[in-house]
Amino acid sequence: MIYLKNSCLLLLFLLCVSFGPLHHGWANYDQTKVLDFETTIDESTFGNPHTMAKVNYQDEPWTVYLAPASRMTDRGLSAEMIKKGTKVRLVAYPHKTEKGEMRAERIYVDGKKYELR
User: Fold this and answer.
1) Burial of 91 by CB count in 10 Å (0-12 exposed, 13-18 middle, 19+ buried)?
2) Over its length of 117 residues, how does the chain's per-residue pLDDT go in tens digits?
3) What domains are there in the chain, each with its CATH number?
4) End-to-end CA distance of the chain
5) Nearest 10 degrees: CA dihedral of 114, 104, 26, 75?
6) Full-prediction pTM beyond 0.90?
7) DSSP secondary structure string, 42-101?
């Protein structure tokens, strides 16, 4: 029984260590540089751990990390609302080291504001 418990703890630890770097925490984004702009969604993926969109910002392609799908849905955003071709306003922060990556604080769709944090 102790062996089984220790094995489960080890498995849990390994999963956390393996997937931890994939999480896009706020600390990696420069919150002193607010990007507030209107754009069109070029591509989106609605899912976990984060919903993601591809957009153009200052004539460059950017990846925008949004909230997890469950939070998006809880706040009234559906996959249909951020599909390709949707015009949005984003308020986001650029990644400190990854060029072309940002994390959205909020998104406006059809003029309505949705908080993502």
Assistant:
1) middle
2) 565 555 544 444 444 444 444 445 679 999 999 999 999 999 999 999 999 999 999 999 999 999 999 999 999 999 999 999 999 999 999 999 999 999 999 999 999 999 998
3) 26-115 (2.40.50.140)
4) 41
5) 20
6) no
7) SEEE--SS--EEEEEETTEEEEEE---HHHHHHTT--GGGGSTT-EEEEEEEEBSSSTTE
Return d(Cα 28, Cα 34) in angstroms, integer: 14
CA dist., res. 82 & res. 58, Å (int):
20
Query: What is the spatial distance between Cα 75 and Cα 79, in angstroms, rounded to a whole number?
Result: 12
Which region holds residue 7: left if phi is over 0, alpha if psi is between -120 and 50, else beta?
Answer: alpha
